[in-house]
Model the fold of this input.
Amino acid sequence: MSEPAVAATRRGFSGMQVLGLIALAIVLSVGATYWFIRTYVYARDFTPVELSRTERQELGSKLQALGVDPVAVLPRPKGEDEFDAQGRLVPEKYAEDPGKRDIHLSERELNALVASNPEFARRFAIDLSSNLASAKLLIPVDPEFPVLGGKTLRFTAGLELDYRNARPVVILRGISVMGVPIPSAWLGGLKNVDLVGEFGGDPGFWKSFSDGVELIEIRDGELRVKLKE
Done:
């Protein structure tokens, strides 16, 4: 090997190469910092889900089967309500349809329920995957709060929903703030705990909930709840 080649090998990177690597590191650092701040500190509002007329009618039927007034939680456009020309509610004969105890709510429908409050819809969104309901929540911080004042914090949470051993299963998989998981001790030790199994044996909400549900599951972006008679 010639002396110039040996000298070049010993020198390693040239000055221009070193400057190029430094510039690349700066660009990557700035990009990563921008992504973190835009995603977790100055998070963007979510786009509220808007249902078509047919979708609203289908969701209204599902809510009625659950005993929920669809007009109260899912306002309809003028002319699509259940009132007559004088503004009075149209009477309806009571009847039970066993088929309506089997409720199917899609991810889109759940987010549309949230969208009934436009301000809340821009801050909260639900995702449904296999046996897991996930939520994202944006919370603006008071401008006078130290350090984080005026910023928007992103919270995420996961809740497992399933039906096993002849009873519903509800497990809090975790809550994260700005991508950082909150320790189980800060959640009262309830992380990864089956809430129905833990509290369903005592009188109260979880026992009543368990006694009234025949099936609950999440499949392909859809929540299915089958109620007992």
Observations:
- The mean pLDDT is 74.
